[in-house]
Amino acid sequence: MTRLQGRVAIVTGAGQGLGKAISAALADEGASVALLGRTKQKVDDVAAELAGKGRDVMAIGCDVADRAAVDKAVAETSARFGRIDILINNAQGGALGTTSTATVDLSDEEALEYFRTGPLGSLHLMQAAFPSLRESPHAVVINFGSAVGVRGAPRMAGYSMAKEALGGLTKSTAIEWGKYGIRVNLVCPAAWSPAAETFRDENPARFEQIVRGIPLRRYGDPYDDIGRAIVGLVSDDLRFLTGATLMLDGGQIILR
Asked: How far is the C-alpha of 210 from the C-alpha of 156, rounded, in Å?
């Protein structure tokens, strides 16, 4: 599989879950991939696993909320691979899958953590990678939103606000960067992840209710359902798609 042969990708939040699966899917299609993650050991482990399969990858410890760390990671990627064609902004911090907060109790710090690690982190990567992306004939940015941002959810105002902000960033940048041939799209997945597993274990009844509300009656597989879809989005097969929001959620949004 060589649809992405010769292209270079950066994937944030690549140490586990969706980020790991997307990195694997891109590498399996021939892309060279820089794996970015806040916990260096996690991305080191993923890089070792993929390199063991003959994939061309590198691991970089990077907190996307730290602009200096982002600039350094992008520079290291360019120095190693010579270019950047694909940027996958998957990282999102905050209290994911562990707690929920009523809107009246939401603190500034809790809300800002979602923004620092979500839309601001994505903005940092986009700004830092822009000079390289502008030179690529295949430049694509994929940001990650959420159905929670689209439809809202109780006790999740901080997360919902941050994910809606990513939608605004995606649309504005798609318009602004289109003249450079850079495509920017938003993906809203409903996929199995460590956060989903934690939620299932702590809220089994609510988890089953959510699954029943998905027309396909399951969460997406991180590699086969999300990673492979990302491969399609960043390939030339969808080269005329930009500024779009793709709901990779098994149809969940239409029943809400």
From this structure: 15
- Cα separation, 202 vs 96, in Å, equals 13
Residue 154 has pLDDT above 90, yes or no: no
Closest-CA residue to 60 (of 52, 70, 51, 50) = 70
Confidence of residue 98 (pLDDT cuts 50, 70, 90): low
- Beta-sheet pairing, 140-144 with 8-11: unpaired
Residue 140 token pair: 């694509």
Q: What is the number of other CB atoms lying within 10 angstroms of the CB of residue 57?
A: 26
Q: Looking at the annotation, which residues are catalytic? A: 159
The CB-based long-range contact list for 70-78 (8 Å cut-off, 24+ gap) reads 70/121, 70/124, 70/125, 70/128, 71/128, 73/10, 73/34, 73/36, 73/128, 74/10, 74/125, 74/128, 74/129, 74/132, 76/34, 77/8, 77/10, 77/34, 78/132
pTM beyond 0.85: the answer is yes
Does position 94 have pLDDT exceeding 80, yes or no?
Answer: yes
Is the distance from CB of 13 to CB of 36 less than 8 angstroms? Answer: yes
Partner residues linked to 230 by β-bridges: none
The mean pLDDT of the chain is 94
DSSP result, 119-139: HHHHHHHHHHHHHHHHH-TT-
Structure-token pair, residue 233:
């989005």
- Domains of the chain, with CATH numbers? 8-247 (3.40.50.720)
Percent of the chain with pLDDT over 90: 83
